[in-house]
Amino acid sequence: MTTPPTVEATNLHKAFGPTPALRGASLRVADGESVAITGPSGSGKSTLLLCLAGVLTPETGTVNMLGTDLDQLSTTARTRLRRREIGLVLQFGQLVPELTATENVGLPLLLEEKNRAAATTIALDWLDRLGVGAVADQRPGELSGGQQQRVAIARALVTAPRLILADEPTGALDSVSAESVLDLLVTTARDTGASLVIVTHDNRVAAAADRDVVLRDGAVERLVDQA
């Protein structure tokens, strides 16, 4: 019996006003697979990622997540599914400015009614893994761009999601830190059986994935098997 994909997008079209972002893009990500989405600026990479996450809704086409058609879910149900099953790392972190690093990372656990003490312990562990345990009590405005991105990645991984979606996760990091964080993302996905989708311009990041999906003008131009 064939295992269903973690997420599958079929023939997605999405426009912002008169400007098309996706023109029939399709993508299938198997359970435990890591996929890089690459392509020139404006090719629709981030739009495709946000459609996979259910943050954006395509005009036409379908996104199926863990056997569920996202179009059939209410906004509340989509949010709940995303919170429980998806670890989302956006390009600029999107941390809550009033919360400390520990509170930001622990927030998804608290939203799922995890005990505060337990959430704090798990959050501190992830901050240590990402090399930012020393800034646990600081707020985003007191952190460097690289530190904020590491905190955002910790927040995405804290719930042990089935799918990790990352938009330029190493863009704000130096080469040494980027390699360390990339290794952690890939290793965590493999160790937990999660699927990983990374939008990137960095060839080194793309090379770490099982497949490279190249977008151009809102559609998949080619697939590159990295094996």
The total count of helices amounts to: 7
Number of strands: 10
Q: Whole-number average pLDDT? A: 91
Low-pLDDT stretches are none
- Main sheet strand line-up: 6-7-8-3-9-10
N-to-C order of helices and strands: EEEHEEHEHHHEHEHEE
Overall geometry: globular
Could you describe the largest sheet, including whether it forms a barrel?
6 strands, mixed
Helix/strand-derived class? alpha/beta
Helical content band: 25-40%
Q: Please indicate the percent range of residues in DSSP E strands (runs of 2 or more).
A: 25-35%
| Radius of gyration, in angstroms, nearest whole number | 17 Å
Distance between the termini: 24 Å
General description of the model:
- This protein is an alpha/beta fold and 227 residues long.
- The protein is 35% helix and 27% strand.
- Helix 3 crosses helix 4, helix 3 runs parallel beside helix 5 and helix 4 crosses helix 5.
- The longest helix has 18 residues.
- The radius of gyration is 17 Å and the shape is globular.
Annotation keywords:
227 residues, 27% strand, single chain, alpha/beta, 7 helices, six-stranded mixed β-sheet, four-stranded antiparallel β-sheet
Layout of secondary structure:
Elements: E1 7-16, E2 19-29, E3 34-38, H1 45-52, E4 60-65, E5 68-69, H2 75-85, E6 86-89, H3 101-111, H4 116-129, H5 145-157, E7 163-167, H6 175-192, E8 195-199, H7 203-207, E9 211-216, E10 219-225
Parallel strand pairs: 3-8, 3-9, 6-7, 7-8
Antiparallel strand pairs: 1-2, 1-4, 4-5, 9-10
Helix pairs in contact: 3-4, 3-5, 4-5
